Model the fold of this input.
Amino acid sequence: MKKIAPSILSADFTRLKDDIESVNLADYIHYDVMDGVFVPNISVGIPVLQSIRKTFPETVLDAHLMITEPIRYAERFCDAGADIVTVHLEADTEDKIMEAMKLTRAKCKKAGISIKPKTPASALAPYLPLADLILIMTVEPGFGGQGFMYDQVDKIREVRRMIDESGFDIELEVDGGVNDETAVICSEAGAEVLVSGSYLFKKPDRGAEIKRLKEML
Ligand code: DX5
Ligand code: ZN
Done:
């Protein structure tokens, strides 16, 4: 069964509790952290994550750190209640990104590694032994509501092959422009977790849409 991860970047932050409840039958809640440096936008950080964790103790919180030098914050996001902490390969040197992933695992949390559209799949190879999740961006990170980049589908297939050949237990997640058409394309290419923000949050009955998507995939 494929997993759906609603991105609360598209939620109404004045009614975040209600909005999370409206999608809480999903598998993960995707939490986008932006620092205005790694991406040209600023979103939410540690205090909001702590509040969500307190209010939703059972929910799997999937933190996507679009920040430079994530080694500075990986442990703090673990402590704040994230279950998965995903850092960007492009956000620091290879050594420091690996160290951030090791620190995450040392906190008994899952470590993710993400790549932007221009980064080739092959760049992921050194990180496979440290990764519990790989996140492929199908838009340039920074904003919700962008169009899906169809030229990334071959990369999803390639990373699927890399994971299968490696023998490691790594989930493959896709983020950006996911709707009922592109979710099927990503799933067929080998993605297991589909992040969806603007598409899902525009639906009047988000729970029904999550169920529908999961039945389709
Ligand atoms: C973009 C974020 C995404 C975003 C997806 O940088 O990482 O998680 O919320 O939004 P949609 O589904 O609207 O493309
Ligand atoms: Zn994201």
Summary: Residues 25 and 138 are 24 Å apart (CA to CA). The longest helix spans residues 153-166. The pocket of zinc ion (ligand 2) is lined by residues 7, 30, 32, 64, 175, 195 (CB under 6 Å).
